[in-house]
Amino acid sequence: MGKKISFGIVLPTRGILFSGSDPRKDVIELSKQTEEYGYDGVWAGDSILAKPRLDSIVVLSAVAAVTKRVKLGTSCFASFPLRHPIILGYQWATLDQLSGGRTILVVCQGTPTKHGPIYRNEYDALGIPPGEKVVRVEEGIEILRKIWSGDNVSYNGRVYKFRDVTVLP
After folding, report:
1. Are the C-beta atoms of residues 46 and 77 closer than 8 Å to each other?
2. How far apart are CA 46 and CA 110, in angstroms?
3. pLDDT score recorded for residue 70
4. Strand 41-46 to 103-104 pairing
5. Buried b (16+ CB within 10 A) or exposed e, 131-155
6. Domains of the chain by residue range
7. pLDDT over 70 at 1, yes or no
């Protein structure tokens, strides 16, 4: 017998900002229905300024509170290179605890800044050189793996440097 195919939905966390609809209905109720109908996952897109939407970590926390079984994840965590990995690691570990271990973190580097000023402005506004995007993703993944699997972690990379950090939960 072959592997089971999983199905899920991507929440409309961007569209509701422009439609004037109620996020509780379009995000929370839809998530509950997704679980009731037997789907396997609920996913949230991610972007901070370039493509505004409800924050993916906050949304997934709300979904974790009203579901019991579905996996929870980011469809593409485009703001990953814009977030410090220690803070993100702490937030994601908290979400994973609150959800009972149901999270899946899917990272990406987002849209290249050469594709328009909205992408470049996001980096400029946060004081991050766009040329660091790839190294921030690489180092960020490496840091998350370390802080989620050990105590008193130190790191000395091109972008991130720290000593003796323990991230709980």
Report:
1. yes
2. 9
3. 99
4. unpaired
5. eebeebbebbeebbebbeeeeebeb
6. 8-165
7. no
Spatial CB neighbours of 34, under 8 Å, sequence gap ≥ 6: 8, 9, 42, 67, 70
Two structure tokens written together for 129: 């050189």
pLDDT tens-digit readout, 51-95:
889 999 999 999 999 999 999 999 989 999 999 999 999 999 999
Listed residue (75, 8, 69, 72) closest to 39, CA to CA: 8
Provide the sign of the torsion angle of the four alpha carbons 147, 87, 167, 43, taken in this order. negative
**DSSP per position, 29-80:** IHHHHHHHTT--EEEEEE-SSSS--S-HHHHHHHHHHH-SSSEEEEEEETTG
Query: How sure is the predictor about 44, in pLDDT bands with cuts at 50, 70 and 90?
Result: very high
Global pTM reads: 0.91
What is the C-alpha separation between 88 and 160, in angstroms, rounded?
Answer: 13
CATH (residue range 8-165) = 3.20.20.30
Amino acid (one-letter) located at 52: P
From edge to edge, which strands make up the β-sheet containing 71-77? 8-10, 41-46, 71-77, 103-104
